[in-house]
Amino acid sequence: MNRNYFNFKSIFSAIAVVGLMSSCSSDDSTDDIIPEPETESRWITVAAAKMGEEPGDGNGGTLIYSVSSEDAKNPDFSIEPFENGFIVPSNRTARLQASEDGSTIFNISYAGDTGGNYTKYNVLGGQNFEQTGSEISIAPYVGSAPRWIKLFDGDQTGAAVYVNTGNEFSDNDTPDDSSDDFYVRTEATMGIVTLDLQNSSIKEFQEHSVPLSAEEEAAGYYISRIDMPTLNAAGDKIYIGARLSKVDPETGERDNDGAVLASRSIVLDYPSLLNPEVIVSEVGVGNTNGYRSINAFEYNGSVYQANQGDPQGSHILKIDSDNEYDDSYVFNLDEALGVNDAYILAWRPASNGKAVLAYRHAGSAEGVAGAQGYFALIDLNSKTAQKIDAIPYDPNFYLFQYQGFAVDGTEIYLTQAPVGENGNIYIVDTETGEVTKGAELVNTQGSHFIGAF
Prior knowledge:
It is a single chain. This protein has helices at about 10, 70, 80-85, 140, 215-220, 335; strands spanning about 45-50, 60-70, 80, 85-90, 95-100, 105-110, 115-125, 130, 135, 145-150, 155-170, 180-195, 200-210, 220-230, 235-245, 260-270, 275-285, 295-300, 300-305, 315-320, 330, 345-350, 355-360, 375-380, 385, 405-410, 410-415, 425-430, 435-440, 450. Helices cover about 5% and strands about 40% of the residues. β12 and β13 form a beta hairpin. The chain is globular, with a radius of gyration of 22 Å. It has six helices and 30 strands. The two termini are about 25 Å apart.
């Protein structure tokens, strides 16, 4: 049975927006659909990743469960997605996105027989998610394990990307006159497809070679992974984050100890996806592709982008309307938080330029699934950051796979629960810094929560 504790007073109040959540088993039909929230409230969908073989790996599948924002703020309300949630189609952890008003969930399955399949669901409350529209597979364009994101264009478009790489060797004599082949460069070919989210159709697909400078390529550097496409404010350019890797040019084998290069992004014309260009930051060093969560956002005419793996600690980088990095903007998380080796795991700004940011650092404890995570409130305008102390932390609080924050005005909803332990939703008022402890999240062994949508 579903352990839900209901706020009857709020249900019968003038601003009541949602009826009782049904306490039914996971095979219930949607006969008792919960009314859609009115303007005073919105759906908050919690995503949970089930353990596969190891605690925190998230490879056992993804379950989602939705509640009203009013119930999400109620600490006496309990949510059990592992017991009663809707199973999202995906062989491993699903890659989820939500509409701006929370009424729709978008999913592209990750890996397996259904990998690359796009589906869309109306959020109806509790475990009730109604598939709407037709399915479409983007696997023929970007493979069965696509890296995709929903663009901020009014829930109209999704974009998925990939990069293929191959080492090139010369069959000419090497400079020392030996007859062996020698390494020349690594060719990186990127693909990008845009998807009409409303009509389930392919909008555009392009492939491009994305070379680095001749000097960098001769030293063995190449773009090895790309992710997190983001539209600029004008809507005529799309920025794609990039990770660089390196091979030893003497052997052609991977060089994991090679120096880290300056952060960079790929810029394409939009919507044509033509004319690729690589832009380089003089501020940040390391990768800009992120991992599971959106890594770059447009705010106030510019795009702000996190970097990872920076030896000086993660930065928030800024790309201006001229489609170049603004190197006068320096926002270093080590300095702002007073830590060493800050690593941005996920982040999301509200409309006021203040954001909640998930991170780890050199002082993070090693838990059952990896380094301990924390949340901070940051301000893009003042370039300041402060750890959110009102949220409890545990060595097993693992945020590396964190995917989503739900934004409602200047409030940001997040999930907090150590691997295999219960936790809560927390709501951060980014304007005042006030933190509200919300609904209880009921966990199960080895599993964890990966965000709110």
